[in-house]
Design a protein that fits this description.
Layout (H helix, E strand, L loop, with lengths): L4 H13 L7 E2 L2 H8 L3 H13 L3 E4 L3 E4 L4 E3 L6 H7 L4 E12 L2 H7 L6 E11 L2 E11 L16 H9 L5 E10 L2 H7 L6 E11 L2 E11 L3 E3 L22
Helix pairs in contact: 1-3, 2-3
This protein binds 2-amino-2-deoxy-6-O-phosphono-alpha-D-glucopyranose.
Length: 248
């Protein structure tokens, strides 16, 4: 069977934009149809395919542009700020919520505290070069971080404040990663199509005082990829601890 016409066209377009810098405008449906001698419907399907693959982004009223390439996620206890700086991007944040709240049952059990104990809730949009990369909802042990709510996390890095102001040095943690469908409001904030696939990271980080941070981060599935170091299983069977768990 031959490939449908739009697939060939998508492939040709993919090759054409392979070396183009992020943000380069790409031909409109009409232009693409005209120059390739195909119908507008075929041109639209070809463009749609590259948008779905995360190679192009459509901006309403402006056109279609070469998208950011997929960004690798390290499996380490690094901060968003440091990750993005290390990749040559300029990190920034928009604060959606920052306030003290009483721990509910679930949060209390994560922190091994009592329900009702104070926790600091911080929700942020994390951006790289002005492009939304993630939504992060963090909970922190407020009893050990007096005055944390007075920081401006639109400007400051959370991990930097924890270290510099409170001497919190994380020494371990767990990160659970799952695939999910973006919630409608998250899709809007991340500027991704409704119902898009996202990666959800749930990080629990601890210092010598116990669990300090519990953060859920939502990353667009088309902009991120995960890579993990794999090592042979040793005689004791003590390979790095990671597991693919079935969600019940
Ligand atoms: C990463 C982690 C979060 C952590 C954040 C801190 O994104 N997944 O769990 O809260 O970094 O970032 P920053 O120090 O830039 O505020």
């Amino acid at each position: 069977m031959t490939e449908p016409k739009y697939r060939d066209l998508a492939e040709a377009l993919r090759r054409r934009i392979a070396q183009a810098p992020v943000g380069t405008p790409t031909p409109s449906e009409r232009e693409l149809a005209e120059e390739s001698g195909v119908s507008r419907m075929t041109a639209r399907r070809a463009i749609d395919e590259l948008v779905r693959a995360g190679l192009l982004t459509r901006e309403v009223g402006r056109g279609t542009f070469v998208a950011h390439p997929a960004v690798g996620m390290p499996l380490q206890l690094t901060s968003f700020t440091d990750d993005m700086l290390a990749r040559g991007h300029v990190p920034s944040s928009e604060v959606l919520e920052a306030r003290l709240v009483p721990a509910d049952e679930q949060i209390a059990s994560v922190f091994q505290r009592d329900p009702g104990d104070p926790v600091f809730l911080l929700s942020r949009v994390r951006l790289a070069d002005g492009v939304p990369m993630a939504i992060e909802r963090s909970h922190l042990r407020a009893d050990l971080l007096p005055g944390i709510e007075s920081h401006d996390f639109a400007r400051e890095s959370l991990y930097r404040v924890l270290l510099d102001e409170y001497g919190v040095r994380f020494d371990g943690g767990e990160q659970v990663i799952r695939a999910a469908i973006a919630r409608p409001d998250d899709a809007k904030t991340l500027k991704i199509p409704p119902q898009s696939a996202v990666l959800e990271f749930v990080r629990t980080s601890s210092s010598d005082a116990g669990v300090m941070e519990w953060t859920t981060s939502i990353y667009p599935g088309t902009r991120f990829e995960l890579s993990a170091q794999i090592a042979p299983v040793t005689a004791q069977g003590s390979a790095p601890r990671s597991a693919l768990r079935v969600r019940g």
